[in-house]
Design brief:
heterodimer; A: Rossmann fold; 2 domains; six-stranded mixed sheet; 13 helices; 10 strands; 40% helix; B: 296 residues; MetI-like fold; 12 helices
Chain lengths: 273, 296
């Protein structure tokens, strides 16, 4: 469904991203993992034509049979939100602070579908319900800063899935959230993607997060894909040296026994503070 | 005393003051500004229906009377009641200022947003054009227009707006660019919005406080420019009067009748001060960095 060929992103002659070939199949969840500055975000931004103008993009990005690179801003605007949607890292900064949640969540609907005001309102409430936001009516009349980070990200997801896109790009969607909220948002994204046949490209620096939602993983380093394969294969038998480092760097939670051993007698659990 | 008594009551932190009282505490200058501008506006409104004397009735017998009970502000060099003159003169002054401020704000804000929204090339060109506009003094433009279009309201309005538009554009473009660099703009683009739509519908509400403050500051500047131009004879033409024109008439008589200059002059000062205080007060009130409770 999405096919990237010979993608080359550069700035002032310096190469930033070089991808020979990358395919996302319909209803597939592809994870892109790599350290900061490895070019993950640039890659997904180039799909939507959202790169800063001073960056030069060459190659081809084909979505549903259409070439996306070099399309006019108006053409891209029609595709964005309707066919390809995106969820960003920091939901607090991705919402317009002066617009109420309900109105903001209806933006994509208002733009791409020909619906009456009451239909939009109804759909927005339905969407907010489907992203497991409690009390949608009440939240709809609030401003973004009155919501928690998890709620904000759910609103962003609701906006993204409003027009039933074929592809959802999630760029570090859980990085700015609490660990417990992270879990819920990941589950939600996975559920939405599976239930509505929506392919997903999941970008994160956290291998633990990426493996939880993706069937295949692409490991990026210095703007290139160093390894690509099914999730289990990447985790169990990594071939690239960098992938091994990534897996080694992923912290696993030590069990309580080990914690006690590490912290000695100073650390007690359970009783009084 | 129980420990719980020492805890701060949350309800006490949330003051029950209404919006006005809260604003007054936060920026007293706003209240003073509202009072002064309200006073001037009230006088102008009243002048449409009533003035103590006929403002254009000439009575040479009564020329240059000092302020008295029958003529509160005295009379001018032709024996006309000065208070009535000032009241009617405020109509022209406020009208010209209002129109040019509106033109300046609407066109200037649009130009500034367009400059912020377009790429570096067009944005740069628009910004340079604004700079050129700012560099030309409006008095100079007014003098040129007065010789080509003839003196009068229109020339003054064009001259003032010609200066206001680039000034507003320049004030707006910076904050607009800053807002445009925030994440929600990119997010809005992934929803399928075009950049110009985002600039006008989403960035504008975010810079509204700046535009509001700028409007009241320009109003103050507009009154000064209008008065200067009328003083130079480019503005209001007889029989229309304006504060600047009254000042011009009084100028040769400063020593003989100081009240004749001082009274209309103080109206200019009060109005300009009022609008400046209003602008300052709004700036304090609308600045989220200074307000903890987020009034906006």
């Amino acid at each position: 469904m999405l096919e990237i060929n010979n993608l080359h992103i550069s700035i002032a002659g310096r190469s930033l991203v070089k991808i020979d070939h990358l395919v996302v199949a319909p209803n597939e969840r592809l994870g892109i993992v790599g350290e900061s500055g490895s070019g993950k975000t640039l890659t997904v931004l180039s799909i939507l034509g959202l790169l800063p103008t001073m960056m030069k993009v060459q190659g081809s990005v084909i979505f549903a049979g259409q070439e996306l690179l070099g399309r006019s801003e108006n053409d891209l605007a029609k595709i964005r939100g309707r066919d390809i949607a995106m969820v960003f890292q920091d939901p607090g900064r991705s919402l317009n602070p002066t617009m109420k949640i309900g109105r903001q969540a209806g933006e994509t609907l208002r733009l791409h579908l020909d619906l009456s005001k009451s239909e939009i309102k109804e759909r927005v409430l339905g969407l907010m319900h489907s992203v497991q936001l409690k009390d949608p009516e009440k939240l709809a009349s609030r401003y973004p800063h009155e919501l928690s980070g998890g709620q904000q990200q759910r609103v962003m997801i609701a906006m993204a899935i409003a027009c039933k896109p074929k592809l959802l790009i999630a760029d570090e969607p859980t990085t700015a959230l609490d660990v417990t909220v992270q879990q819920e948002v990941l589950k939600l994204l996975l559920k939405l993607s599976q239930e509505s046949d929506m392919a997903m490209v999941f970008v994160s620096h956290n291998l633990g997060v990426v493996q939880a939602v993706s069937e295949r993983i692409a490991v990026m380093h210095d703007g290139e894909i160093v390894e690509l394969g099914p999730t289990a294969q990447i985790l169990d038998s990594p071939s690239a040296e960098y992938t091994k480092e990534l897996i080694g760097a992923n912290p696993s939670i030590p069990d309580a026994q080990e914690l006690r051993r590490l912290s000695g007698s100073r650390f007690r659990t359970g009783k009084g503070v | 005393m129980k420990y719980s008594d020492k805890l701060t009551n949350v309800n006490e932190l949330q003051s029950n003051d209404n919006f006005l009282t809260r604003s007054a505490k936060k920026s007293p200058q706003l209240i003073l500004g509202i009072i002064l501008t309200g006073l001037v506006l009230a006088i102008t409104l009243v002048s449409f229906f009533w003035t103590p004397w006929d403002p254009i009735a000439i009575d040479v017998e009564k020329r240059l009377l000092t302020p008295s009970l029958s003529h509160w502000f005295g009379t001018d060099r032709l024996g006309r009641d000065l208070l009535s003159q000032i009241m009617v003169g405020s109509q022209n002054t406020l009208y010209v200022t209002l129109v040019s401020t509106l033109i300046g704000v609407v066109l200037g804000t649009s130009l500034g947003l367009a400059a912020a929204g377009s790429g570096p090339r067009w944005g740069g060109i628009l910004t340079r054009i604004s700079d050129i506009g700012i560099a030309i003094p409006s008095i100079l433009i007014a003098l040129v227009l007065a010789t080509t279009l003839g003196p009068g309201r229109l020339s003054v309005i064009i001259a003032i707006s010609f200066w206001f538009v680039p000034v507003t554009a320049r004030v707006v473009v910076g904050p607009a660019r800053q807002i445009l660099s925030l994440d929600f703009v990119e997010a809005a683009m992934t929803h399928g919005r075009t950049r110009m739509y985002i600039v006008f519908r989403q960035v504008l509400p975010n810079i509204a406080p700046i535009v509001i403050v700028q409007t009241s500051m320009m109003f103050a500047a507009g009154i000064l420019i209008e008065a200067s131009l009328s003083f130079l004879g480019v503005g209001a033409q007889p029989p229309t009067t304006s504060w600047g024109k009254i000042l011009m008439d009084s100028q040769p008589l400063v020593q003989e009748a100081p009240y004749y200059t001082l009274l209309p002059g103080s109206f200019v000062v009060i109005t300009v001060l009022g609008f400046n205080l209003l602008g300052d007060g709004l700036a304090v009130l609308l600045d989220p960095q200074q307000s903890q409770k987020g009034v906006a």
